[in-house]
Amino acid sequence: MRDVRATVPTLAVENLHVVVAGREVLKGVWLEVRRGELHVLMGPNASGKTTFVMALLGHPAYRIVKGRLLFEGRDISGLSTTERVRLGIGVAFQNPPVIRGVKLRDIIRACMGLWSRADPPEELMIDVLRRAGLEPRRYLTRDLNLGFSGGEKKRAELAQVMAMRPKLMIFDEPDSGVDLDSLKLIGENIRALSEELGSATLVITHYRHIIPYLKPDEVHVLYGGRIIASGPPNEILDALEALGYRGFALKMGLTGGGRA
Length: 260
Fold this sequence. Notes:
This protein has 260 residues and is of the alpha/beta class. The protein has a domain at 4-98 and 166-251: 3-Layer(aba) Sandwich (Rossmann fold), CATH 3.40.50. Helices cover 37% and strands 28% of the residues. The strands form three sheets. The protein has a six-stranded mixed sheet, sandwiched between helices. A four-stranded antiparallel sheet has the order 2-1-4-5. Strands 7-8 form a two-stranded antiparallel ribbon. β9, α7 (180-197) and β10 (200-205) form a beta-alpha-beta unit. The longest helix has 19 residues, at 233-251. It starts with 10 loop residues before the first strand and ends in a 9-residue tail after the last helix.
């Protein structure tokens, strides 16, 4: 029997409208990401990028008032964050919190527990940290993100997503607050992990610097709560470089295609 999941997008966002604190932030977002594809969503500050991530996660403060979120063809708009994660959605946050008393080892073990019933061996956790560019002996027993630099936090987030092995990976501004070495390592690891797992991958960013390492299949531009353009990376990035976000949006008539 044919696997229906192979014929539908891993993530399909249909005409998504989201209200935050009484204000409509997303005003009709359309987006599809299929298994094995890596997409980048770009936009200036206040364009709705964080709102989009939180709505995908099911944060109660980000209220969907119209449209649907489909995961492998299933409407998940009404599911809790926990239920979405269990289905196979993994998110690396832009500003991960410091959690005293919780070791990085504990978090990695919990992430692996989403796909493995057995208690994961130490070797697997060590391998994940090494791949993320963190020395296991230094970091496994440290409190989560306590005293971590910006780059170390991003690498720890990457390690957690690696450990989850999700069907849909979302990275919220993995390039913010990191040095050039971390930028290259994180970008190349996201691309490698996407290929290894065959996951659908969505990277949210403000700048283009990480994109050469990601080698995305498609780039989308979010502006004013809508996706105003989608296309090959070079096409989109060259126009953004020349015009800036505002100029690009004006050229697209503000609403542009509206639908990815």
